[in-house]
Design goal:
5-stranded parallel sheet; Helicase, Ruva Protein, domain 3; alpha/beta; 46% helix; Rossmann fold; 22 helices; 619 residues
């Protein structure tokens, strides 16, 4: 393609252009020009000359070879004036994938218009579209441009857009929904009906919901007014897929999906700067750097409902609030300038909680090797923050871990502390822990396991997904549903690696086989932390800790008896030994024995545990 813009001039003489498709030449802006003189063009297929804002194209004494024959003739190409709505779409920030899909739709519709002009057309172009993506990605703005493009192509008379949602379509009483929906359809005739969050019209398992009546009214309106109405339904991608697939009528009518990806950092920064320009606001160099840092953090910590441009607008509004506070204290400062301190700091610095959490880990009974591994991980995380401050690349750091060991060794407790530590270091948003197992990830019907696993992951975003007995996902998995959970988990771990820590836990040998069974698991889980069984002394300390938490008192004789009992417990341990859980069971049995001893003794000390209260044997 030959492109002349900003006053540029292209003059070609005696040149052969081969296999030209799409735009042959574009002249954009007044003063720009393309001239073809004494040239030869081969395979002139669907070529066009495009003028934009005063550009000029001249074609003189040029020959072309048709795609349907070999006869040569003087070129007769009519320059095509660029429609303003398509130019407006191209000028929108980001949305590269959306622009490509809309351009393809535009070319298809334009080609059909040309065929009809020659009397050879006849294929109807479906005007209905599905828009998927997160909020703030430009779906409504693009819908308005789509209406204008349809109008400029002659596909719709007006091209206006009527925006609705469930509340605008669905009534509260029988018969009211059809009236409301039809009124909106009538208002949208010769234009676009834009249904935001359309998936809310269908609720799985609720056949009596009035939303179904609205869907039926829309489908009838689409059928009865196929040349006068374009319907665009929009919403989150997973929900929209289920919505369309749930109704064969919808699936047959909506055949084209346009997905709106989340904006990249540079796009979000550009959107912020565009808002600033419209408000006559200038950013100092320091404010520009602070803006980029804030947006980088915004993207790094985004969740499934990331607001994109909406979140950027909120950031801009908060900037203006902070600037207003500064101007109040410094009335002579320029109100059109945003300084470094005006931009809110979104990056999560290491909080005062980290030393507290580290101390909590240190004071846990036993777990010497676990503490060493966790501190090593945290040291890398802290070093990376310092490296980033000095402009150095970070050391590789995976937040995913394998915890191995018998039950009752503190794996879940340590996972909670790790989550809070990662949040305190700014590596996770909240550091909360979602505990689950096979039953929380695997469903009993085909296709449901992925959805169930995705829901668990969504709940854990910003924190830790702790999968206990993870090896059961693939053991004796004849249905294949467990493997589906693993596959889903692996994909989400990769896609959300900056917002999610996954800790899988279980018996050592079983977990080794589980991780080794899948190359994807091996590559993502590279940090193994083993939880040894507690020693006899540590088991006795756990008993005393539980007693202290319950406000119970142990005499010196009782403490010695506890140590003896725990020594027997440790000596008789077998595979699957319960560790802390076994001690808690002994403590609960001790309280039952104490209750029998004091029930008829009004003067007994309710807080005292005597040696005779301890069980005679261990489990």
């Amino acid at each position: 393609m030959l492109l002349a813009q900003r006053g540029g001039v292209i003059h070609m003489t005696g040149v052969t252009l081969e296999t030209v498709r799409g735009r042959l030449a574009v002249a954009e802006n007044e003063g720009s020009a393309v001239t073809l003189a004494n040239c030869r063009i081969t395979d002139l297929s669907n070529s066009e000359l495009t003028l934009i804002d005063g550009g000029r194209i001249d074609v003189r004494d040029t020959l072309a070879t048709s795609t349907v024959g070999t006869e040569q003739a003087t070129v007769s190409l009519t320059p095509v004036k660029e429609i303003a709505s398509l130019k407006a779409l191209r000028n929108m920030i980001g949305l590269a994938g959306v622009k490509r899909q809309v351009e393809a739709l535009y070319s298809l519709a334009e080609a059909e218009q040309r065929r009809r002009a020659t009397g050879s057309g006849g294929a109807d172009i479906s005007l209905h579209l599905i828009f998927t993506g997160n909020p703030g990605t430009g779906k409504t703005s693009v819908a308005r441009l789509i209406g204008q493009i349809y109008r400029d192509l002659g596909l719709l008379k007006k091209g206006h857009v009527v925006e609705v949602d469930r509340a605008a379509l669905v009534g509260q009483y029988i018969g009211q929904t059809a009236v409301q929906s039809n009124a909106k359809i009538q208002a949208a005739l010769d234009g676009v009906l834009f249904v935001d969050e359309a998936y809310t019209l269908w609720r799985e398992g609720s056949e009596k919901d009035f939303g179904i009546e609205a869907i039926e009214a829309i489908m009838k309106g689409m059928e009865d007014n196929r040349n006068r109405l374009a319907v665009i339904v929009a919403g989150y991608a997973p929900q929209m897929r289920r919505f369309i697939e749930a109704n064969p009528g919808l699936k047959s009518r909506f055949t084209r999906t346009v997905h709106f990806d989340d904006y990249e950092v540079e796009d979000l920064v550009a959107i912020y700067r565009e808002l600033a320009t419209k408000s006559s606001i200038r950013l100092t160099e320091g404010a520009g750097a602070a803006l980029t840092d804030a947006v980088v953090e915004m993207v790094r910590t985004k969740d499934e409902n990331f607001g994109n441009a909406r979140d950027v607008r909120t950031l801009f509004e908060r900037t203006m609030e902070r600037q207003a506070q500064r101007l109040r204290a410094a009335p002579h400062s320029d109100p059109h300038v945003v300084e470094n301190g005006d931009v809110p700091v979104l990056s999560r610095q290491m909080t005062d909680q980290f030393p507290v959490l580290l101390s909590r880990l240190e004071t846990m009974i036993g777990l010497a090797s676990v503490k060493t591994e966790i501190k090593r991980l945290m040291n890398v995380a802290q070093a990376n923050k310092r490296r980033a401050e000095q402009g150095m690349p970070p050391m590789p750091l995976s937040l995913h871990m394998v915890f191995t060991g018998n039950p009752g060794t503190g794996k879940t407790t340590v996972a909670r502390i790790v989550g809070q530590m990662l949040a305190a270091l700014g590596l996770l948003g909240s550091g909360h822990v979602i505990e689950t197992d096979r039953s929380g990830l695997v469903a009993g019907a085909p296709g449901q396991t992925a959805l169930k696993t995705q829901r668990a992951i969504k709940d854990a975003l910003g924190g830790v997904l702790f999968v206990d007995e993870a090896y059961t996902l693939t053991r004796d998995d004849e249905s294949g549903f467990g493997q589906e959970a693993v596959d889903t988990l692996l994909k989400e771990m990769e896609d959300k690696r900056d917002r999610l820590s996954v800790i899988v836990a279980g018996y050592p040998e079983e977990m080794k086989r589980f991780i080794a069974s899948n190359p994807g698991l091996e590559s993502r889980f590279t940090r193994f932390i083993h939880f040894d069984d507690y020693s006899a002394e540590e088991l006795a300390a756990i008993f005393k800790m539980i007693a202290d938490e319950q406000g119970m008192i142990l005499s010196p004789d009782t403490i010695e008896a506890v140590r003896s009992l725990c020594a027997n417990l440790y000596a008789g341990r077998r595979q699957g030994f319960g560790n802390g859980r076994a001690v808690r069971g002994i403590f609960e049995k001790t309280l039952e024995n104490q209750a029998e001893r004091i029930v008829d003794d009004a003067d007994a000390n309710l807080r005292e545990i005597q040696a005779s209260d301890l069980p005679k044997t261990v489990p």
